[in-house]
Amino acid sequence: MDYFKELERTLGKLENKRREEREEERRKEEFIHSIINSLHVLKRESESTSVNFTADYSTESKGITIYFTVNNEKITVSLDEILRDYNEDDDRDLKEVLMCIVINKLRTNSNV
To answer: From residue 31, how far is each of 28, 60, 76, 88, 94 by CA, in Å?
Structure first.
């Protein structure tokens, strides 16, 4: 057996895996950036309504956590929740997904 050929194959697979991981991390960072942009748009849109709406966030190694306040009601949304509801093939944009999550959590929290 040619050990060095096997070593080259193994190193090639390892490099492919690392490349895929870097690409996945890049896509995740782009998605988080899109979420942050959507939050800014939602804040601007809320200014023309009677709803007291704020959206702050913190980024961490796992992604992003968003802290919404809607008329003194506090709602926390994680990246996992957004990913679960967001589908790129869906007609809904990220703002709509975020607001649907907030509305559903608000309904659930208040038993409405």
So the answer is: 5, 14, 18, 11, 10
- Rounded to two decimals, what is the model's pTM? 0.80
Residues in a beta bridge with 70: 53, 73
Contact of 74 with 88, CB cutoff 8 Å: no
CA-nearest of 69, 48, 49, 46 to 57 is 69
Radius of gyration of the chain (CA): 20
Over residues 62-97, the pLDDT tens digits come to 789 999 999 999 999 999 999 898 876 677 889 999
Q: If you write DSSP's letter for every residue of 38-84 in order, what string do you get?
A: HHHHHHHHHTTSSS-EEEEEEEETTEEEEEEEETTEEEEEEHHHHHH
